[in-house]
Design a protein that fits this description.
This protein is mostly helical and 108 residues long.
Amino acid sequence: MPPHPQIPRLTDIIEAAERVRGLLEDISLESFEADWQRQWLVERGIEIISEASRHLAPELKARQPQIPWKKVVGIGNILRHDYGKHRGTHHLGAGKGKPARTGKNLPR
């Protein structure tokens, strides 16, 4: 029996979130802002999460209403199409002194 068609997308989301989380562990906002390579890696992870989320069934998304699915899709559009206008971490939802905690709502 072939795997459920949603499993590859969910796997992509979980793997990207874990990688982004690893990149953001124990780093200050100032260090993150000074590290363009880390920023690119985080942005790529967010793009993967965003794109994969676009292909999830509405019924599956409805099971996780605490995740702002429209915003997840929207940030990918911003990163893909408006990248030159939004340099810096403000578009990543960074908080006070720390980069955003991407993937915090995903099950471990």
